[in-house]
Amino acid sequence: MNRISSPLGLVSLDDRRRPEPPALVLVAHGSRDPRTLNTVHRLLDQVREQRPGLPVHLGHIELNEPLLPDTLASLGTAEAVLVPLLLSRGYHVKRDIPEMAAASAARTRVAAPLGPHPLLVETLHARLIEAGWGTDEETRRTGAVVLAAAGSRDPDSAVDTRRTAHLLSDRLGVPVVPAYASAATPTVDTAIRALAARGRDRVAVASYFTAPGLFATQCAEKAPWIASAPLGTHPAMADLILHRYDQVANLRGAGPCQLAAPPRGATSHELPALAV
């Protein structure tokens, strides 16, 4: 290997020619709840700690600064991978983020949303254990979980949430029913009643939200037994953000504004276990 001298010692010519990695732009929805913004900033810190030297930025779809178009404008014509801090496909992933990316001068590609993925199930499981979920026979016999999500009118969003519910059910060995705070059915109340009718009277509400907020609080208040905290800053979340980044950053010959997502119209049974 050829080396040259520098004030810092010998440097590989290969290292000098190695291109800078694309920037990681974490795309958050935005919220009026200050706890949400605090959670997002802590997640960014975790990502930076895990990947020193990787340029990491934040852009919001709405409500908080910096807004995504402003973040992209600050990058000029640099290359960037946009990682949605969203848990399923929907309008923001399919339309808003790609359109904002296409309108910028930056050379962008858009990663898949965080879910479905086993790392999310790992986080959901950990949050339920923290809330008091048991592993005893009584819990397996009479327990169940309502996976409380924000909700979307996009059918692909429901497909992704059902897949997460299926993976969590496999992990816990009890029924897991997805339910929604808005825009989709069933509601959390309806799901709880349906499980009670099946003899499942120890029902936990698993918060399928990235951070605390109005919907997460409302869903937790409906829990007849325990309610877990939002996904938050569990270490697996930073791992998953970097995984989604790597999936796109490592592509060869990919064009700009590529959206890495499961095939349109795929059913929950057709989605791969790792959602890669």
What does this structure look like?
With 276 residues, the chain is of the alpha/beta class. It has helices spanning 13-17, 34-50, 68-74, 91-102, 118-131, 137-142, 155-172, 188-197, 214-221, 235-249, and strands at residues 3-6, 9-12, 23-28, 56-60, 79-84, 107-110, 143-149, 176-180, 202-207. Strands 4-3-5-6 form a four-stranded parallel beta sheet, sandwiched between helices. The radius of gyration is 20 Å and the shape is elongated. This is Sirohydrochlorin chelatase. Keywords: Lyase, Metal-binding.
Draw up the topology in text:
Blueprint: E1 3-6, E2 9-12, H1 13-17, E3 23-28, H2 34-50, E4 56-60, H3 68-74, E5 79-84, H4 91-102, E6 107-110, H5 118-131, H6 137-142, E7 143-149, H7 155-172, E8 176-180, H8 188-197, E9 202-207, H9 214-221, H10 235-249
Parallel strand pairs: 3-4, 3-5, 5-6, 7-8, 7-9
Antiparallel strand pairs: 1-2
Helix pairs in contact: 2-10, 5-7, 5-10
